[in-house]
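Practice problem. Given the sequence and the SMILES for zinc ion, write out the predicted structure.
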Amino acid sequence: MGIKRAGREVGTFFPAGIDHSPMGIEQLSCPTCGTTFEMGLPRSATVQSVTTEAREEPDDDRVKVRPNACPNGHECYVMFRF
Ligand SMILES: [Zn+2]
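Answer key:
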């Protein structure tokens, strides 16, 4: 499921249990090329970091890691707390 915006899909994340929370669009910077891109996250989410390496989700139900990619196709991993 994604948000249609300007004709393309942006990454979205709907944590179980808070599906009805208002969504916000976070502006992120690609760690590889610095291009700004958008990702839909719960409005209450705080982005912790964006990295090029996949990593384990911490043992914390409030912290999630989700893969994404910038418009140039660089994969990255967004860690956020909500
Ligand atoms: Zn990039």
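Check your answer against the key. Residues 30, 32-33, 35, 70, 72, 74 surround zinc ion (CB under 6 Å).
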